[in-house]
């Protein structure tokens, strides 16, 4: 009879303590929540009226990262710098940070015209893209489109664009008398002044004529209603004037680079302007260099780029042609006269896009009392 030598069995591991089980469970929950937030959905709240009336201040949203595909982080939570570890909130410039190349995983949709999109604002150049402020706007034009605005009407590739949502325009409404009836009518039609403690519009005067009335923003159907009211003497569009927009301001809030060929476009009369597309080769001249300066100098990580005598220069020499490395998009707020958007700072690079806004899961009226704080009609409302 043969005998087989056996090794002594290891003693069983002691069971985890309750505190260790709690810590492990908490760690797993944090990691799972972080992965879900990075790869699937993230919650946001609307803090400003730039998208009214499509989105209201106090709307809580779910933003899908599955539509366009989640993008890998550009900056780690801790950043090695020589022999130190620097928390991300202590950095002073790009040179303090190690920035990783980004990669977008496949999504089940591309960015389309009229999508409501969350993205990293392009002009906060003191931060890496994924540490910048998140904006939410409507995608008006996609890569390869030519955009134009005529008297407030969007044209894409020479044809009137079909714009979703409820775009707003600013008006001055001259009235026979500023009274509670007018204020109540404005309130009933969703007209809000977020600068006032109660949110109600306040009567003022037209600086040009001295006429009494109200300045406010509203959709076209609300404006049509007020034009028919007997107490309204006049309702006129009020567009901000004297703005220096992109591409006259070639580098909004970053440097003083200005176009060598001023266009003097304004909010309601803008373009035509081509939206750059990946693989497109551009012949650069003083007439168009300002359109592409931020793309070449900032978004596509080229080295030794400067602005010199109205032209883009690399290593001190004028750059006469350039091939676009990624797609770009044109984003605008639905509150057309009260939105700092692509008309100010230009194109949004594809690698700045966070996701698509898909659902309002909660909406709180900042001026509502306890009984009217929740906007019940907006709960679980899909976003157009």
Automatic annotation (TrEMBL):
Record key words, sorted: Hydrolase, Protease
Peptidase S26 domain segment(s): 20-166, 314-361
Protein name: Signal peptidase I
InterPro entries in the cross-refs: LexA/Signal_pep-like_sf, Pept_S26A_signal_pept_1, Pept_S26A_signal_pept_1_CS, Peptidase_S26
A family per Pfam: Peptidase_S26
Main location, first listed in the record: membrane
Localization of this protein: Membrane
Membrane topology summary: Single-pass type II membrane protein
């Amino acid at each position: 009879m043969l005998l087989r030598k056996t090794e002594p069995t290891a003693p069983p591991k002691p069971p985890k303590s309750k505190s260790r089980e709690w810590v492990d469970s908490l760690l797993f929950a944090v990691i799972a929540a972080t992965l879900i937030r990075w790869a699937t959905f993230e919650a946001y709240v609307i803090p400003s009226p730039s998208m009214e009336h499509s989105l209201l201040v106090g709307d809580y949203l779910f933003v899908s990262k599955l539509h366009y595909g989640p993008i890998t982080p550009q900056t780690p939570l801790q950043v090695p710098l020589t022999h130190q570890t620097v928390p991300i909130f202590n950095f002073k410039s790009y040179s303090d940070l190690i920035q990783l190349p980004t990669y977008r995983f496949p999504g089940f949709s591309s960015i389309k015209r009229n999508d409501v999109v969350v993205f990293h604002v392009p002009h906060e150049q003191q931060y890496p893209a994924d540490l910048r402020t998140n904006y939410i706007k409507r995608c008006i034009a996609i890569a390869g489109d030519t955009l134009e605005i005529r008297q407030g009407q969007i044209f894409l590739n020479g044809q009137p664009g079909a714009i979703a949502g409820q775009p707003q325009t600013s008006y001055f409404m001259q009235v026979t008398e500023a009274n509670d009836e007018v204020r109540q009518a404005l309130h009933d039609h969703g007209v809000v002044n977020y600068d006032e403690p109660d949110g109600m519009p306040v009567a003022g005067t037209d600086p040009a004529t001295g006429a009494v009335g109200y300045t406010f923003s509203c959709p076209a159907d609300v404006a049509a209603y007020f034009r028919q009211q007997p107490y309204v003497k006049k309702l006129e569009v009020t567009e901000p004037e004297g703005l220096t927009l992109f591409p006259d301001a070639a580098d909004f809030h970053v440097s003083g680079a200005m176009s060598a060929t001023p266009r003097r476009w304004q909010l309601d009369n803008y373009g035509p302007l081509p939206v750059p597309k990946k693989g497109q080769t551009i012949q650069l001249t003083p007439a168009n260099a300002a359109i592409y300066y931020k793309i070449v100098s900032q978004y596509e990580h080229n080295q030794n780029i400067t602005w010199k005598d109205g032209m883009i220069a690399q290593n001190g020499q004028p750059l006469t042609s350039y091939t676009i490395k990624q797609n770009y998009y044109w984003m605008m707020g639905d509150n057309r006269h009260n939105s700092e958007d692509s008309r100010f700072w230009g194109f949004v690079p594809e690698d700045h896009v966070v996701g698509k806004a898909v659902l309002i899961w909660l909406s709180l009226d900042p001026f509502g009392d306890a009984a009217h704080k929740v906007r019940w009609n907006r709960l679980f409302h899909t976003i157009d």
